[in-house]
Specification:
alpha+beta, 132 residues, 29% strand, three-stranded antiparallel sheet, 7 strands
Length: 132
């Protein structure tokens, strides 16, 4: 399971939408192998050096996407980040797309929640909210 502050997730989504408006749409997380899939408002859950979410709006030349690391899996703060990533995301690098239509209504119905939990299963991405 990976945990992210809801305020940070909202910032990532908003940044992706803003980047898309200025730069012509959303990026394809599948490097063009699945045209049209994932080219909509959302965020990417990325397993790489740690696990993080990032915005998916197209970027201007030289600009970087906004990203936020999972509380459990930041390579500069968690000494066991690699083991945690391998156990909960897998050993390989990868990207999972999460549509903002799944997130924003969830956040708006649960205004007291402070954090988003993301859990990957063999076939699905499970989302839940917690309050700290």
């Amino acid at each position: 399971m990976f945990t992210f502050p809801i305020l940070a997730v909202r910032k990532v989504i908003n940044r992706g939408i803003a980047d898309a408006a200025v730069n012509g749409g959303f990026r394809n997380p599948y490097y063009g192998t699945r045209p049209g899939e994932g080219e909509k408002p959302g965020l990417w859950l990325v397993g790489d050096q740690g696990v993080y979410i990032m915005s998916n709006g197209k970027l201007a030349e030289g600009f970087r996407a906004l990203l936020v690391y999972a509380e459990q899996c930041h390579p500069k703060g968690d000494v066991d980040w690699w083991d945690y990533k391998r156990r909960h995301f897998g050993a390989d690098d990868g990207i999972e797309f999460i549509e903002w239509e799944r997130l924003i209504p969830l956040f708006d119905r649960n205004l007291g929640a402070t954090h988003l939990n993301v859990e990957l299963t063999e076939t699905d991405i499970a989302l839940s909210l917690i309050t700290r």
